[in-house]
Design goal:
Blueprint lengths: L13 H31 L9 E17 L4 E15 L6 E3 L2 E7 L2 E8 L2 E3 L4 E9 L2 H5 L4 H7 L1 E16 L3 E16 L4 E12 L1
Antiparallel strand pairs: 1-2, 2-7, 3-6, 3-8, 4-5, 4-8, 8-9, 9-10
Length: 206
């Protein structure tokens, strides 16, 4: 009589083993992806954290300054052209691409002239030089009652205000919109047409 023996326990079959290996591979891929994302986020908020561009008025020259004081009736005739040498430094580790912007010249809180800044891009850790010619709007300037006394004292308190709106792209993945404003107070000495006592304030919105 033939007697069948009970099947001996053997190793797991092939498909089950392959399924277990695929699961391990998927877990490893997900873990690697999570680590990469975490690393990118850390870099985005540390090394590549968006910083404000720094605008500096290197010099301001009164190329055309024609002033005449009328005694009767009392009045002041003014013709002023101001040459501004401005530098914009991009401290970011990536390029800063900005839209059309404007630099406004203010006198005692009132705008008296402006000059456009065409859209451009500043490379990482680069500084862009800009030579701007700004014609002062005499009618706005002279509408301030303190203009006469400031000219007689020989010192004009002016302010330049620059607003730059653009974006930086971090690692080709994240686009961070940046709005940077720079306000610089400066004194222009009428006698020798030089600039001194410059103080700048910066503000950035991300």
């Amino acid at each position: 009589m033939d007697v069948e023996s009970a099947p001996k326990p053997g190793k797991p079959r092939g498909p089950a083993k392959r399924g277990h290996g695929c699961r391990n591979i998927c877990i490893a891929l997900v873990a690697t992806l999570v680590l990469v994302v975490v690393l990118i986020v850390i870099l985005a908020f540390t090394v590549f954290k968006a910083k404000h561009p720094v605008t500096t008025v290197n010099s301001a020259k009164l190329e055309k300054l024609q002033v005449s004081l009328n005694v009767a009736p009392l009045g002041l005739d003014l013709n002023v052209t101001l040459d501004l040498d401005i530098s914009v430094k991009n401290p970011n580790k990536v390029g800063f691409k900005y839209k059309n912007s404007t630099t406004v010249l203010n006198y005692r809180g009132e705008p008296v002239g402006e000059v456009p800044l065409p859209a451009d891009e500043i490379g990482a850790d680069r500084t862009k030089q800009m030579n701007l010619t700004l014609t002062v709007m005499a009618n706005r300037f002279l509408s301030n009652s303190q203009a006469y006394s400031d000219f007689l004292s020989g010192v004009l308190p002016l302010n330049t205000y620059t607003k730059m709106s653009g974006k930086v792209t971090i690692m080709g993945l994240f686009k961070v919109h940046v709005v940077s404003t720079t306000s610089c107070d400066l004194s222009v000495f009428v006698s020798n047409r030089t600039v001194g006592d410059q103080r700048c304030r910066y503000k950035t919105k991300l």
